[in-house]
Every structure is written in C-alpha cells, then in structure tokens.
Amino acid sequence: KNSGVKLVCITATGFDNIDIDFCRRENIAVCNVCGYSTNSVAQVTVAMVLSLFNHLPEYDEYTKSGAYTKSGIQNCLSPVYSEIAGKTWGIVGLGNIGKKVAKIAQALDCNIIVYKRTPEEGFSCVDIDTLCRKSDIITLHTPLNEGTKHLINKDRLLMMKESAILVNVARGLVTDEEAVSEAILNRKIAGFGTDVFSTEPYPENHCFKRIANCKNV
Hints:
By secondary structure, this protein is of the alpha/beta class. The protein has helices spanning 20-25, 38-54, 56-64, 67-71, 96-107, 128-134, 154-159, 177-185; strands spanning 7-10, 29-32, 88-92, 111-115, 137-140, 165-168, 191-194.
C-alpha cells in the first residue's frame, strides 16, 4: 500500500526492477537520474572495444610471461589486428550513452550506423539485421523491455561478420547469453565484452563460465 510516496528516482538505467503497474495505480512517478552514468558507461564501452580490437590482454601476457624475451624476435605479429579507423561501429540504442559512444567512435574515425525505434536526423539509422550484417563493432545501449529481450539472438549472431566484436553494456537479457557463448566457442564472432548479466552475480552454472577464460572475452 502506498504510504505517501510520490516519486521513485532510480540511480540506474531502466525500470525493469520497479513494479511499474503498482506505481501507476498509486500515482507514483518513476524516473531515472538523467545522465548519472553517461560518461562512465561510455568509458567502459570504449575500453572494452579497444582492448578486444587491439588484443591487449594477449600482448600484455606475451610480454610479461617472458615469451617475448625468449623468442629472440623484435615484434610479435600474432594475433593480427587492424586499425579501428574506417571500421563500421553499430550502436544499438541512441540515448545519452549511445550518443556519447557515437561521439567517441566518430573521434576514432569510425563510420557510425544506428538502430533505434525512431530514426534520428544526423545519424545513419538502419534496421537491426542490417546493423548486425554491416558492423565491425556492435555496442548495446538499449533498455530491456519486451521488444529488446534477446534482441541479439542466435540468428543475428550468425548474421555478424566473423571478425565482429560485440559489447553489451545494456542489460544481460538484451542478448541470448547461451547463443553468445556458442558464437564465441564456435568462432562465429571475434570477441565479446559485457558489463551486465541476466543474473547478477552470475551463478556457477551460468553459460558464461564456459567462455570466461577465453582470450577474446
């Protein structure tokens, strides 16, 4: 029963942990703290993209392990990576975070394509399947709702380039986590980064346990 509450203000993104129907019945306003995490989530997004794209963990380990010293060779040429400039960066969801990531991606000379429900002037907006097919990098910034649950599923993962990198900083269930695990294990995509899970923390039997130690995750 409502005891005089007028507002629920969430220091997080989305409403999926709030009983919205109850709030409507009781005339309780619900909102997010606008912009509270824009910079930090954009920073984490780009950090994961650059780490995966440049294979930073592999090169770091190769050097620190002593393998580089023992090799007697000046340069390590594997795994091969390419410059991010000129690559196509697909952004799913164009709220404050998506726009911030787009701005950074543009500064890195990437070509930006966007999937959002309502096309927005100034951006190259495409449908989700086109985005999956064309993108070298895909980052997810959309709220979780009935329309976005498992938006990235097995079929769309198969549409992606085998060289594509996928990063989810939206909600765990925006992806089919089992399908993502299989895509990594079967090398259907080149890399995966995430800061969100369907169950947090994820349990011992979670499918991501199978890929947690993969160098491209």
